[in-house]
């Protein structure tokens, strides 16, 4: 679809060009959102991040059709006073970047806040690659960084949006639901089959976390508190906000492959962990038997939902939205089996003799790990407000994602394995 000025929102009103300050634009979700906004809209993006590897293809060369509509600002929101200026959109002209005359734009600012738990001054940062420390492995081993990144560092963003009357789209997480009510029932209880005990609803489900020693929940708890703060800013000070709760969005450019474009000792999220095992022809590690259940949604489907939120403020403001695919539920073991099958198809290589092994969570993640048992999003609110439904099946999304992983990493992994032998 080409960008067109005649585009209309869900209520038939023409869509005016927006200027969007997107924090975390260089990450997995941010990169796909930038791609969508550049190729299908006329909006302008102020892309804020400490890294830009994942959006380089959108920034260069200058001859790209959207050149001038995307501007990268390398800054750490933890400690950079330029953030407020960007949110106010008053300090846009940087000496080394030419930018269109913003005074001619219909000036609506929208702050899409997508940073993750990340230590920007730690080893991952000096590694010099997209660190994407956004994994449960950090929640229990680096709980302070996790709480600071997801709560403290987000505070100024909420404050600036509230004080300057800017709309805020905040990325939270489905982890705020924690465990399901059903997980506390006896194993043989028939109520475990009743959706009332496991479907996660934005407006009625409780948030159930483990004890304080289970530091896994530091992330969920920090995210919950910032959600509550945003909600309170809306109620008391009129902040226009939308909160997004992603349910395991996956696809190309997610996280990193350890030792290739991230630290070799790093533990990314499950898609990248299993991709790494497949690329290296190692067994996929099933934490505590791989019995936890997840629903996976294709990043491109999920980005369509965010696009609708951006362009339909009257329908999105004041809402919390689950964004996931309830039809794509599997246990982690089933995910491992399907990924093994799909990877064999896309790589043309037979799978190894022992495709999976069990590993304890203590061994894999360390002390203080705990898990969400099951995550199925209720879709009533997003369906009613935005008419959004996910489309892509788990098999199809794994096929396109693993094709990308194989094309992007197989050769680099082969060389990294061959190197020690050559030495
Ligand atoms: P990501 O790590 O790929 O992207 C986050 C980006 O934010 C990174 O590029 C990082 O460099 C940047 N960032 C972090 N701290 C920053 C700082 N202080 N200053 C500037 N930039 C900073 O993660 P993602 O998967 O794209 O997730 C984005 C958001 O969505 C996060 O808030 C995360 O909690 C939420 N989320 C995502 C998922 C998912 O399925 N991908 C699930 C639940 C929640
Ligand atoms: N997991 C696993 N093996 C791995 C990585 C993750 O069994 O190599 C499990 C993890 O314990 C969890 C699920 O996969 O039950 C999803 O993990 P992810 O890191 O993607 O994050 P989560 O969905 O828990 O937020």
List keywords for this structure.
single chain; 423 residues; alpha/beta; Rossmann fold; 7-stranded parallel β-sheet; two-stranded parallel ribbon; globular; binds nicotinamide-adenine-dinucleotide; binds uridine-5'-diphosphate
Could you characterize the architecture of this molecule?
With 423 residues, this protein is an alpha/beta fold. The chain has a domain at 116-411: 3-Layer(aba) Sandwich (Rossmann fold). The protein has 15 helices and 15 strands. α1 links the parallel β1 and β2 (44-49). α1 crosses α10 and α12 crosses α15. The chain is globular and about 55 Å long. The chain starts with 18 loop residues before the first strand and ends with a helix. The chain binds nicotinamide-adenine-dinucleotide and uridine-5'-diphosphate. Residues 24, 26-30, 48-51, 76-78, 114-116, 118, 120, 132, 134, 149, 153, 171, 173, 246, 248-249 line the site of nicotinamide-adenine-dinucleotide.
Give the helix level as a range of percent: 25-40%
Low-confidence stretches: 90-108, 116-133
Q: Would you tell me which CATH topology of the domain at 116-411 applies?
A: Rossmann fold
CATH architecture of the domain at 116-411: 3-Layer(aba) Sandwich
Question: What is the SS-derived class?
Answer: alpha/beta
**Order of strands across the biggest sheet?**
3-2-1-4-5-7-12
Rg computed from alpha carbons, rounded to a whole number of angstroms? 21 Å
Largest beta-sheet details: 7 strands, parallel
């Amino acid at each position: 679809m080409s960008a067109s000025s005649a585009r209309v929102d869900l209520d038939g009103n023409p869509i005016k060009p927006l200027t969007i300050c997107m924090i975390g634009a260089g990450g997995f979700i941010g990169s796909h959102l930038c791609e969508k906004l550049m190729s299908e809209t006329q909006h302008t993006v102020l892309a804020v991040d400490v890294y830009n590897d994942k959006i380089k293809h959108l920034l260069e060369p200058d001859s790209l059709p959207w050149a001038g509509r995307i501007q990268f600002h390398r800054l750490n929101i933890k400690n950079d006073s330029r953030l407020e200026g960007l949110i106010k959109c008053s300090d846009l002209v940087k000496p080394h970047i030419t930018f269109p005359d913003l005074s001619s734009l219909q000036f609506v600012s929208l702050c899409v806040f997508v940073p993750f738990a990340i230590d920007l001054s730690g080893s991952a940062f000096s590694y010099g690659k997209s660190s994407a420390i956004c994994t449960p492995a950090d929640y229990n081993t680096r709980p302070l960084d996790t709480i600071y990144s997801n709560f403290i560092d987000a505070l100024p963003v909420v404050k600036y949006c509230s004080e300057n009357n800017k709309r805020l789209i905040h990325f939270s997480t489905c982890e705020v639901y924690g465990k399901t009510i059903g997980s506390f029932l006896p194993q043989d209880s028939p109520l475990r089959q009743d959706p009332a005990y496991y479907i996660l609803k934005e407006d009625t489900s409780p948030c159930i976390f483990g004890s304080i020693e289970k530091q896994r929940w530091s992330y969920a708890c920090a995210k919950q508190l910032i959600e509550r703060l945003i909600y309170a800013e809306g109620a008391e000070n009129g902040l226009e906000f939308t909160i997004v709760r992603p349910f395991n969005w996956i696809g190309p450019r997610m996280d990193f492959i350890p030792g290739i474009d991230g630290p070799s000792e790093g533990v990314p999220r499950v898609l990248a962990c299993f991709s790494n095992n497949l690329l290296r022809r190692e067994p996929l590690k099933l934490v505590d038997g791989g019995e936890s259940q997840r629903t996976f949604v294709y990043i491109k489907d999920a980005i369509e939902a965010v696009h609708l939120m951006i362009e339909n403020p009257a329908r999105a403001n004041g809402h919390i939205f689950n964004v996931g695919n309830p039809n794509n539920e599997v246990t982690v073991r089933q995910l491992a089996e399907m990924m093994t099958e799909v990877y064999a198809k896309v790589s043309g290589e037979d799978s190894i003799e022992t495709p999976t092994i069990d590993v304890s969570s203590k061994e894999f993640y360390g002390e203080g790990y705990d898990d969400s048992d099951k995550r199925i999003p209720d879709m009533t609110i997003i369906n009613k407000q935005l008419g959004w439904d996910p489309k892509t099946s788990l098999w199809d999304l794994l096929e396109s994602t693993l094709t990308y992983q194989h094309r992007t990493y197989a050769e680099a992994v082969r060389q990294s394995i061959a190197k020690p032998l050559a030495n």
